[in-house]
Amino acid sequence: MMHENRLTQAKSSIYPAVLALLLSWPAAAWTDETATVAPPEAPSLGQIQLDREMGQFSVPGRFLERGPDQGRDLLEYLAVKRNGYKAYEAVLELDTTATEFNLACILIGLDPDNATLPEYHFDPRPVQGDPVDIHVEWDADGTLHRARAAELILMNGKPVDDHGWVYTGSTFIEPGNIYLAEQSGTLIGFVHDADSIIEHRHGIALNAPQAPSVNRALMPPPQTPIRVIIRNPAETAGQDDAAPSATLAD
Questions:
Q1: Of 185, 190, 181, 209, whose CA–CA distance to 121 is shortest?
Q2: Are 248 and 227 contacting, i.e. CB atoms less than 8 angstroms apart?
Q3: Residue 164, pLDDT score
Q4: In a domain, 246, yes or no
Q5: What whole-number distance in Å separates Cα of residue 77 and Cα of residue 64?
Q6: Is residue 131 in a domain?
Q7: From 174's CA, which of 123, 156, 210, 236 has a CA 20 to 30 Å away?
């Protein structure tokens, strides 16, 4: 019952938050004339760049520092917001707030009404939600590298090959109408945490004897700039994979 109440709270609370953010956008980014037609230049939400025609958005960030011991990675999240509380359990830090990130998800067509949240942390049951494609880009020695998000995580020494990410939207709690993704800083998780905005449908390493670790062979040095691309495949059926982003910042 508590889970159902939390989910209802999330769905009833997210739309006022979305409306408030839309109203705060500069007129150049969102006007009556552009409400149904994308503007010539992709609008932005903070550091997030939206491409509604492609059904995707990109957000800059960086690889977080991990120690040399894979056995102590303690991973539960792919990405957290800037200075997110759970950064010590994440691979990536993104230059956005949870509220902006969630709004961007909604603006590319991901629907919180299709989501079912995990009932508790590490809930082994699959979570439901609109499918999401996630890619990570970075520059190394002048070469643009691109990987599917799950490939940054190792299970039993091998990159994860299950790319079943779904939009769950996080949730709100009372008192205070607190958005849990903003409070914890969790954007993309894989251990079925209701705070996350995007989760892994089946979870990674749930009830596994060995914890997941960072794919150090693939990752560049800590603090290397990245760009994460979030794509709604339902909006781009029949098109090529997510378009590469603009050149990464130095």
A1: 190
A2: yes
A3: 96
A4: no
A5: 12
A6: yes
A7: 123
CA-nearest of 61, 50, 60 to 104 is 50
The structure's pTM equals 0.81
Beta bridge partners of 94: 61, 81
List b or e across 172-187, with b for residues whose CB sees 16 or more CB atoms inside 10 angstroms: bbeeeeebbbbebbbb
Q: Is there a domain that residue 249 lies in? A: no
pLDDT by residue (tens digit) across 162-193? 999 999 999 998 888 899 999 999 999 999 99
- E strand or H helix at 104, and its extent? helix 98-107
Triad 97, 101, 105: Cα angle to 5°: 170
My answer on whether omega of the bond before 39 falls inside 30° of 0, hence cis, is no
Q: What is the pLDDT of residues 217-230, one digit of tens each?
A: 998 999 999 999 99
Which element (helix H / strand E) includes 91?
Answer: strand 90-94
Domain count, the chain: 1
Model pLDDT, residue 26: 46
Whose tokens are 């979305």? That residue is 18
Tell whether 239 is covered by a domain.
Answer: no
Spatial neighbors of 19 by CB under 8 A, at least 6 apart, are none
pLDDT tens-digit series, residues 81-105: 999 999 999 999 999 999 999 999 9
